[in-house]
Amino acid sequence: MSRVKQFIALPTLLIPVAGMAAKAANAAAPAAQGDKPLNVLCVVCEDTGIQYFGCYGSKLDVTPTIDKLARDGVRYTHFFDVIGVSAPSRVALITGVYPTAIGANNMRSYATNGNFPEGVIPYYVVPPAGVKCYPEYLRAAGYYCTNNSKTDYQFPSPLTAWDDCSNNAEWKHAPAGMPFLAIYNFEESHESYVWVNRNKPLTVDPKDVPVPPYFPATDTVRRDIARVFSNVRLADQFLAQKLKELDDAGKTDNTIVIFYSDNGGPLLRQKRTVYEQGLHVPLIIRYPKGYKAGTVEDRICSFVDIPATIMSLIGMRPPIYMHGKAFAGKYEVKPREYAYAAQDRCDVYYDKVGSVRDRRFIYLRNYMPEIAGYLDAAYRRQMPLMMDILKERDAGRLDAVQMDYFNKPRPKEEFYDAEADPDNIHNLINDKRYAADIDRLRRAHNQWVHDFNDLWFLPEKELSELMMPGGVQRTVEPLVVVSGKDGASIFCPTEGSSIAYQINGKGFTPKHWMLYTKPLALKKGDVLTAIGVRAGFKNSPTITFTENE
Q1: Residues 214-225: pLDDT tens digits?
Q2: Of 227, 298, 330, 456, which sees the most CB atoms within 10 A?
Q3: Max Cα separation, the chain?
């Protein structure tokens, strides 16, 4: 079967057709403590690996709130991204599907800011029909879902995904008695704030920061690492604010709090890579009333597991198409053996690297070994650290470890003891003592590629054409409204679509759109407004219907 045919066939083979998803979501009741469904609050920081947190071993005291959250909850020691950069990783976080499997692993497929390769038409990723943003399932089950406010999903956030997706989105806006899922994204730990915040006071002394062996320990490098720690301190303060808001509203005893990062560290050889420090991120889950407080969980978890796990935590069965599986809650499955990741185009530069991680080792395969690991991204060169390292390189002052990332060709394979060597400095691929483990992880990578990733090897020009033929974004077909004894039913011919609606010009508010899941009981004179939605498509034309009976 060709790649294109396989992609088109995927909805039929694995994904429920339009309408089935909403029906399945309605059939599952939220978990509850007493008679109240549980809320879920997620705080997500950007570009932050585990090395910056006290509860994960940092000796710099910049995360007192996060460290306390770990003491009060469950700290996961082996939680891994699927790629060390935001947009593809956020595809996994919102769909529960590997971005490589649906053609979403290139960084910002619709970039129009100059950081895009010539000859490729920008495109929105179109997930297979039936793949939904997981908050839609929660909305269908009666949850109020908010995102404040970063999306970066490789497609515009569908109108049906959130009750509110904006800088003003708050769980506090939920109608009385309605449980919520609320996600808050903290941006100041992002790579760009290493230079944006350069004139802000530092929380730590540059002399005290750990310098990875792949960096020269110059004053500029130390200062920028200190800036990263200082930005993480701001993330800690942000979490403290969100926890206080829960306390002040009396919601703490009925809310699960989840803290994680959208990818690993913001610096060179961390962000954009599938090395340990690009993938290994914090995950803490605090349950109400001290449940499992102080637990340390060493099972392997992946970004693709987050949607299924959040659904499981509130008692909802995850849809069968999700590649991720629940690692907690009612539908928890046995621990996975491996976490998988893959690197693709970042900005204008192409690379292709696959990695697989078990609880000790990480295996990497370089599919383009003829190029260096270092990609000269213009965006990253705004960082003083980056320019200082390049100056040291050009002056011949980097040692062999520091030069390794700039050398070409690279080995076709790399293998590291990630627990003993978290910086991934000592490549053990030719060490016979590890031959059995190397072969085991090599075979695991091959199997993952076989099972999930035919689209991963499609050239981006062809991928763009597959998603948006002729460079034109497809449009959801017009809706049809039929009024009957059960109420007003809305139908959309586009496979995999969802429907947003308002009655008399509003949902909960005039700006809010309800998610359609079943026929609507309208009164005479009520005006129904509806829009068809599918991720990666343009919305359907808006239709209106007036009830005359």
Answers
A1: 999 999 999 999
A2: 227
A3: 83
- Residue (of 307, 336, 337, 329) closest to 319 by Cα position: 307
Give the SS3 label for residue 496: coil
Share of the chain above pLDDT 90, in %: 91
Q: What is the CATH number of domain 3-343?
A: 3.40.720.10
Please tell me the distance from the alpha carbon of residue 122 to that of residue 487, in angstroms, as a whole number. Answer: 42
Q: Which two tokens stand for residue 468?
A: 């948006």
Tally the C-alpha atoms within 13 A of residue 174's C-alpha that lie toward its C-beta.
Answer: 22
Token duo for residue 32: 């509850």
Domain ranges of the chain: 3-343, 480-546
pLDDT tens-digit series, residues 350-371: 999 999 999 999 999 999 999 9
Q: Rounded to whole angstroms, what are the CA distances from 265 to 188, 232, 282, 381?
A: 13, 11, 11, 16
Three-state SS for 199-212 is: CCCCCCCHHHCCCC
Long-range pairs for 200-207: beta carbons < 8 A, 24 or more residues apart:
200/230, 201/230, 202/226, 202/227, 202/230, 203/62, 203/229, 203/230, 203/233, 204/60, 204/62, 204/229, 204/230
pLDDT at 21 over 50: no
The CATH class of 480-546 is mainly beta
Picking from 148, 132, 154, the residue whose alpha carbon sits closest to that of residue 181 is 148
What is the bridge-based pairing of β-strands 144-148 and 180-186? parallel
Give the pLDDT mean for 297-307.
98
H runs (alpha helix) in 122-191: 135-140
Rounded distance, CA 255 to CA 233, Å?
A: 24
The residue-averaged pLDDT of 52-79 equals 98
pTM for the model stands at 0.94
* Number of neighbours of residue 167 by Cβ within 10 angstroms: 8
